[in-house]
Specification:
Elements lengths: L2 H13 L5 H8 L1 H11 L4 E4 L9 E5 L1 H4 L1 H19 L2 H21 L4 E2 L7 E2 L7 H22 E3 L2 H23 L6 H9 L2 H12 L1 E3 L3
Antiparallel strand pairs: 1-2, 3-4, 5-6
Helix pairs in contact: 1-2, 1-6, 1-7, 2-6, 2-10, 3-9, 5-6, 8-10
The structure holds zinc ion.
Length: 218
């Protein structure tokens, strides 16, 4: 799943308007920001197996640090605690915790049974919606659009950057989503890992867009 996670980041703004969209994106996409780094460090592994699901050619053979439910809860607590120590804001910490763990549950919908509950010899879960491209893409699009809807409800552009920047960010996310679906399988694991680092671009862009928008108070 890709844009669905960013949809959660957008939507979370409504629950915690005082948190920058850049931080919300980092939390909602935390596992997939961590994962490419762990691939580069050879701490987690993936194989390219075209046909393994209809929508993605990736076989997530081993990713307990970034994607086992136990460690996902741990990462959620770390992110929440880090925020709380910085800002002493419990609501914000809870929202970020939920954003981090939401990632696992959204992945659970689409992945084949490859998501471990804990590192080691764990059962692996996943409903495998990626084998049903239309429902999978519709579900992801609904989450994305709903998130943007909430974000637009709670923020308004201060200037042109806040207005057009947002639509550029949305267009780029959709563009990458379409690219992910249509592109041929990646040439290798290194390519996946480096492409994954490019996601930081969305985080940076989100910080910038959010700074150029203000919160609508009722
Ligand atoms: Zn993931």
């Amino acid at each position: 799943m890709f844009i669905g996670h960013f949809g959660i980041g957008f939507g979370a703004k409504k629950a915690a308007p005082f948190i920058s969209l850049g931080v919300l994106f980092t939390a909602a996409q935390f596992l997939d920001l961590l994962w490419p780094l762990l691939l580069l460090l050879d701490a987690e592994h993936v194989t390219i197996a075209p046909g393994i699901t209809k929508l993605t050619p990736l076989d997530f053979t081993d990713y307990p640090i970034s994607h086992s439910l136990l460690l996902v809860i741990f990462w959620g607590l770390i992110v929440g605690l880090f925020y709380w120590l910085l800002k002493k804001n419990t609501r914000g910490a809870i929202v970020l915790f939920i954003c981090v763990i939401s990632h696992w549950f959204l992945d659970f919908l689409v992945h084949r049974p490859d998501l471990p509950l804990y590192p080691g010899n764990s059962p692996r879960l996943g409903l495998g919606l990626w084998n049903y491209p239309v429902p999978a893409l519709i579900a992801e699009a609904i989450i994305f659009v709903t998130g943007i809807f909430f974000y637009l409800q709670i923020t308004t552009a201060k200037n042109r950057s806040g207005k057009f920047g947002l639509w550029i960010l949305i267009a780029l996310l959709v563009f990458i989503q379409i690219g992910n679906i249509l592109a041929p399988p990646p040439p290798g694991v290194k390519a996946i890992a480096w492409a994954g680092q490019l996601q930081w671009l969305f985080v940076i862009l989100a910080f910038w867009v959010d700074r150029n928008r203000s919160i609508l108070t009722k």
